[in-house]
Design brief:
Elements: E1 7-13, E2 17-24, E3 29-36, E4 40-41, E5 47-48, H1 51-65, E6 74-81, E7 86-90, H2 111-117, H3 120-127, H4 136-146, H5 148-153, E8 154-159, H6 160-169, E9 173-175, H7 176-179, E10 185-186, E11 191-192, H8 194-200, E12 208-210, E13 215-218, H9 221-227, E14 233-239, H10 240-248, E15 255-260, E16 264-270, H11 277-281, E17 285-290, E18 293-300, H12 304-314, H13 322-325, E19 338-340, E20 358-360, H14 368-394, E21 400-404, H15 411-421, E22 425-429, H16 433-445, E23 455-459, H17 467-483
Parallel strand pairs: 1-6, 6-14, 9-12, 15-21, 21-22
Antiparallel strand pairs: 1-2, 2-3, 4-5, 7-8, 10-11, 13-14, 15-16, 16-18, 17-18, 19-20, 22-23
Length: 484
């Protein structure tokens, strides 16, 4: 790489992987490093992340992504991350506890208390979020009850991206998109909500909020020595799905982003949030991208997680590779099997945090490709439920669905979704959308504007597409979903 080129690094802290991407001023891809984001078991047998292990993995990714000749050219770094995963930190900067994952169910017991004490609609009017135990409000209530020593020592609660920025710079920061996912930020007032903070018995626990794309400092001297990156400014990024939305460059309100990873969301930009009972009823979350710019979001929490669960299930003696897992699945599979994708509860449009996943109508003649095909269909059927609710309540007709994320490389899955939704779908390349979004945000933070236009291709419905098959099966799926 030419030493005179400016380079921009984007970090993506995901549930399954941590990625570091490097691009230049022409928005040419320079390099990419990917590492597994490992979980460990806590004393109660729950999956958690060690913050220090995560940080070591981030540094490894950064150093692997940047060659020795590239390091002097890196002028900005930004961080995207999963939203609700976070860690409590003490006043002296010590990590007090494991990182509680966004899909951790420990705080589900607190839902009834908040519903009774405040009410779901009142919380929605303030925060734009439908009650769910994954949000940090519930994690803090859980810590107060179950880990009072940790709760008392806690000075800050940091989302995953905030934690990485802090380790890079020593600055306690967050952005509006991650603040909007805490269930403690008032989206109408653009500030932390005093009533909800008082309810949790906390004050000053969340850092100062910045706009996505704000440079907040240089690298700590220790980090410069460890990574060899000397000249980079650190720029506030945000929620990974919204960094992907930034990358995709959505323009029209009829364009909808479908970000497919471990979880899956549909999202778009909007005017000031409509925090009414109709949107609340369909589980539509709303928040800030930055000051004066708002988004809506609805999704399902077990998208890629469902595929990974099935792969792990058949990995008896050793982990089955994806190539071996899908050898006979070249086209969408049709069967009587119905999969209800609720491994981590039901989200939009029918909220049930305690919901469970199910296979229905399995026979002795069914094989692994039939199960996998049913998983693809089930996730697509849930997507159709969401889009139908958006059309009914908000009048939002998805003229163009734009897909990003790791699952977008699975052509059979995307073709299945096109069949179920009965419309062609656009897929954005590259698949590392959140990492690229973070790169572009890093560039903007230092005043650079790399020329970038999303590279897309179209996935069409199957040549032998049978509308009646999908119509009938979707109706059965909907009836089963409502029955659960």
């Amino acid at each position: 790489m030419n030493g005179d080129s400016m380079l921009f690094m984007g970090l993506d802290i995901g549930t399954t992987h941590i990625k570091a991407m490097l691009i230049n001023e022409k928005c040419e891809h320079v390099s990419l490093a990917v590492r597994n984001n490992r979980t460990v078991k806590d004393s109660a047998g729950r999956d958690v992340m060690s913050p220090l292990l995560l940080w070591d993995t981030v540094k490894d990714c950064m150093m692997s992504c940047a060659s020795s000749e590239d390091k002097d050219g890196i002028v900005a770094i930004s961080v995207a991350s999963m939203a609700e995963t976070g860690v409590p930190v003490s006043e002296d900067g010590s990590e007090l506890y494991d990182m509680i994952l966004w899909n951790d169910n420990r705080a589900i017991e607190m839902l009834a208390d908040v519903q009774a004490d405040i009410g779901g609609m009142e919380v929605y009017r303030a925060t734009g979020l439908v009650l769910h135990h994954k949000h940090p409000l519930f994690r803090l209530l859980w810590l107060r009850k179950n880990e009072p020593g940790v709760f008392k020592k806690m000075k800050y609660w940091l989302s995953a991206a905030d934690y990485v920025v802090w380790k890079l710079t020593g600055e306690m920061t967050t952005d509006y998109s991650l603040a909007s996912r805490t269930m403690l930020f008032n989206v109408g007032e653009n500030s932390w909500d005093s009533r909800l903070m008082d309810y949790c018995q906390i004050s000053g626990v969340f850092p100062r909020v910045y706009d996505m794309g704000t440079a907040v400092g240089g690298l700590d001297e220790k980090i410069k020595t460890e990574t060899g990156i000397k000249n980079a400014k650190v720029v506030v990024g945000g929620h990974d799905h919204l960094c992907a939305l930034y990358m995709a460059g959505l323009g029209k309100k009829t364009e909808i982003l479908n970000s497919m990873g471990t979880s899956e969301i549909f999202a778009g930009l909007s005017g000031k949030p409509a925090l009414n009972e109709e949107n609340f009823a369909i589980g539509l979350n709303q928040g800030l991208v930055k000051r004066g710019s708002y988004y809506w979001m609805a999704g399902l929490s077990s998208s890629g997680a469902s595929v990974e669960w099935l792969r792990n299930l058949v990995s008896i003696e050793k982990t089955v590779s994806y190539d071996d897992f899908m050898p006979g699945l070249k086209k969408p599979v049709r069967s009587e099997i119905i999969y209800l994708p609720y491994l981590n509860g039901k989200a939009a449009p029918y909220i049930d945090p305690g919901g469970k996943a199910s296979f229905v109508h399995i026979s002795g003649s069914d094989a692994l490709p039939d199960l996998l095909g049913a998983v693809y269909e089930g996730i697509a059927f849930q997507s159709r439920l969401i889009l139908d609710a958006l059309k009914k309540v908000r009048g939002l007709d998805a003229e163009k669905i734009i897909i990003v994320g790791g699952s977008a490389k699975n052509d059979v899955w995307i073709e299945t979704k096109a069949n179920v939704l009965d419309q062609d779908i656009w897929v954005v390349k590259p698949r590392e959308a959140s990492a690229l979004g973070a790169c572009l945000i890093a560039a903007a933070g230092v005043g650079a504007r790399p020329a970038y236009k999303p590279d897309t291709y179209e996935v069409r419905r199957s040549d032998n597409y049978q509308a009646e098959y999908y119509r009938v099966k979707f109706q059965k799926f909907k009836e089963l979903s409502m029955a659960l």
